[in-house]
Amino acid sequence: MNDKVDQYFSKERIHHLEQLSALLRIASISALSAHKADMGQAAEWIADALTQAGLEHVAIMPTKGNPVVYADYLHSPGKPTVLIYGHYDVQPVDPLDLWDNDPFDPTIRDGKIYARGASDDKGQVFMHIKAIEALLKTTHALAVNVKFCIEGEEEIGSVHLPLFVEEQKALLAADVLVISDTTMLGPNAPAICYGLRGLCGLQIDVQSAKSDLHSGLYGGAVPNALHGLVELLATMHTKEGAVAVQGFYDDVVPLTDDERKELASLPHDDEEYRKGLGLPSLFGEPGYSTVERYMARPTLELNGVYGGFQGEGTKTVIPARAHAKITCRLVNNQDPVHIIELIEEHVKSHTPVGVTAKVTRFDTGRPFVTSFDSAAIRSAAKAYEVGFGVKPYYMRMGGSIPIVEVFDRVLHIPVVLMGFGLPDENFHAPNEHFSLDNFDRGLRTLAYYYEHLDTI
Amino acid sequence: MNDKVDQYFSKERIHHLEQLSALLRIASISALSAHKADMGQAAEWIADALTQAGLEHVAIMPTKGNPVVYADYLHSPGKPTVLIYGHYDVQPVDPLDLWDNDPFDPTIRDGKIYARGASDDKGQVFMHIKAIEALLKTTHALAVNVKFCIEGEEEIGSVHLPLFVEEQKALLAADVLVISDTTMLGPNAPAICYGLRGLCGLQIDVQSAKSDLHSGLYGGAVPNALHGLVELLATMHTKEGAVAVQGFYDDVVPLTDDERKELASLPHDDEEYRKGLGLPSLFGEPGYSTVERYMARPTLELNGVYGGFQGEGTKTVIPARAHAKITCRLVNNQDPVHIIELIEEHVKSHTPVGVTAKVTRFDTGRPFVTSFDSAAIRSAAKAYEVGFGVKPYYMRMGGSIPIVEVFDRVLHIPVVLMGFGLPDENFHAPNEHFSLDNFDRGLRTLAYYYEHLDTI
């Protein structure tokens, strides 16, 4: 690897961590409208960082939602153009009391930086900016052309990005798309991801009486919205753990024997996995291994259920309203909108007597699978070897980056998913963090990648 | 009825409503420890009102929880002594956004006073104080001896009152216990209650992983605390609406044919009842009428269920913790502690794979049934006839006043449950209110009752 670049990262390390901390301090939670101002602030921060890195045509481009930050450096005519995608928005932080530090007050402990967005995805976006910066500051040139497209709505399903990509097709034109928003398989086990699950989400609102009722005066004679919701939700899975919504699995492309063999070869130990998560036991769809279940099988997950009294002690109330938030992870060829329709049908046919149930649809994203036999991916594998000293694995990811499928469909270019997070870094949960060891190695991996991608 | 007393109520009406409003402004929520200071303030308010009414030996008597307010007027030797019980604590107010006014800013609309505690039970306690006051101020004597015992923990199961009653047995000795904490059957349909349901409560805490997990990275391979809780809760009732906990009904004394005939004679119309509550349909234990279900059959009710994300939109999280709050209404001869044990057994044997479930027990109260053929009850019926112009019904109540069973057991005196609330006045729910018409008639009913009870 280029010594000057390596020295640049070493010399700038403290400065880089200060900069990353400043970015992590911005509470850019896209799901909560109260954080609208933070979204703008985060976009500006990214734009400033791109400018300081030496990129050009830096622009905060409006959408009907949060803006997209664009920048480019196009001084290598005849060489490939890399489009770098990432996001500056983060997940909500509740339950706040389970965090060991304020989620927006980044704290370094045991070689890890703790903050919401540390790994998903601010930390990884920051690394791409710094990799380009290091090359520009030390070699004063880039071997490839680069374009950045950093959005602010990934955590709410990239609501406005598909239209943006369609409209800005020419601006975003490139030869390869690179994204760091997936994880490695484990410490010192980097991985290139060739498949992502899709996503659809909905909310169910159950209502019984027009208002809450006293359980003494009415109890026994009237329906309870919570009973109705609980009974309805319990019908959505079999006791064994499969999804029980009719037609849910109909469009799933079965795993081939070859792919099952490959997934079985990934380093994984059920008992270690169970212990690491503090679980009494593992649980999931019968007939599939743990790795298959979280990488390559679809799910229906309750993300939130609530109704009635949540305070200390008891309240003898019959709740009139109860709510459930559900998201599904989907695999090829499930269609997210069709899956929502199937769930709506299920809700309609399973709503218990005495209550009504209303469904509100949320964001959707299609699943994605690509071939991992492209020059761009082979280059990424080589870069990992240099940065980490080991060959990367090829894996599918259970997570969803719905926009990947849009880029794939609109721009028709190979997609390289090279992540640097670890699966246990609490993406979307309290105490999200990012390994500084992987941060350091990742910077070098990316710099090497951008320096050698001209050989595509 | 005594004209002077009648005129007193008319003259003082505005003043009385101002006083009642002052009491209702005190947020004496016993379930929430943040309201500790309000509990003391409410006790002092009651003590002051009793003093101003002309009562003697007014005392705020400590317990290990909230204090009991005691007062008496014992100047009729040889005449009966009436013990008046009520409570100055109120239920929590959430969901706050469903209230049309601040629950602690009493508002009069359409002849009703809206505030938490308006009918349960501050309004009714206030009426007893004012009935005695009216007699003392106008006739300067009482035909009976009276003792007040107003507690501050009824809404949390009268935790410390049983011990207080045992210890103060001599102080509280009386010939009859009068309580206004039940309801009438409907407008212009006063009722004397001869039975109350018992109560037990518990919380179930379900845990899966040690922390929340990302539904993309883990979804499908790990248990979800909400799935576990929902599946567990769904086993607690049959689809038809009966409680499915083994042994739950074993100790229930079946309704006699006579009692079923009597309950069937109460004015009730299912369709009107359903419409009034805004329900798609009624629902309850098969084989029983609506009136039987809410007056004389036991229940198991979900009062609160919560876990995971409750904000706007979606959050793709697998919640690690989920919670349910449950209370049961019980009838003779169900033992509240035994019922909790049965539910604990049920939880143990129905906890789904992959999660653990912990049960925390809350307050209990035994059910109560009395004969309605006592002189004290016949006097109450006569007083209703004078105050309301109609004979009262005799009914059982689905609610629980656990302390009634304690008074019954320790003091061995007849209990008269004469309520003035209406069933649709939103006890324990948003927009609790109290009819001022029933307030006015009730004052006269109570004054008549205390004036003529010497004929027991």
Spans of chain A with pLDDT under 50 lasting ≥5 residues? none
Q: Look at the structure and give the mean pLDDT of chain A.
A: 94
CATH class assignment of the largest domain in chain A: Alpha Beta
First and last CA, distance of chain A: 18 Å
Radius of gyration of chain A, CA atoms, in whole angstroms? 23 Å
Organism (chains A, B): Sulfoacidibacillus ferrooxidans
Enzyme class (chains A, B): hydrolase
Keywords (chains A, B): Hydrolase, Metal-binding, Protease
InterPro entries (chains A, B): Cyt/Met_Dipeptidase, Peptidase_M20, Peptidase_M20_dimer
Can you walk me through this structure?
The structure is a homodimer of 456-residue chains. With 456 residues, chain A is an alpha+beta fold. Helix content of chain A is 35%, strand content 22%. Chain A is built from 13 helices and 18 strands. Chain A has helices at residues 3-24, 36-53, 122-139, 161-167, 169-172, 225-234, 257-265, 270-277, 290-296, 336-350, 375-388, 402-411, 436-452, and strands at 56-61, 68-73, 81-87, 107-109, 112-114, 145-151, 176-179, 191-196, 198-207, 213-214, 299-308, 317-318, 321-330, 356-365, 368-369, 393-397, 415-418, 433-435. In chain A, strands 1, 2, 3, 6, 7, 8, 15, 16 and 17 form a nine-stranded mixed sheet that branches. The first copy, chain A, has a four-stranded antiparallel sheet with strand order 11-13-9-14. In chain A, a hairpin with a 6-residue loop joins strand 1 and strand 2. The longest helix of chain A is centred in the first third of the chain and has 22 residues, at 3-24. Chain A is globular and about 80 Å long. At the A-B interface, strand 9, strand 10, helix 6, helix 9 and strand 11 of A face strand 9, strand 10, helix 6, helix 9 and strand 11 of B.
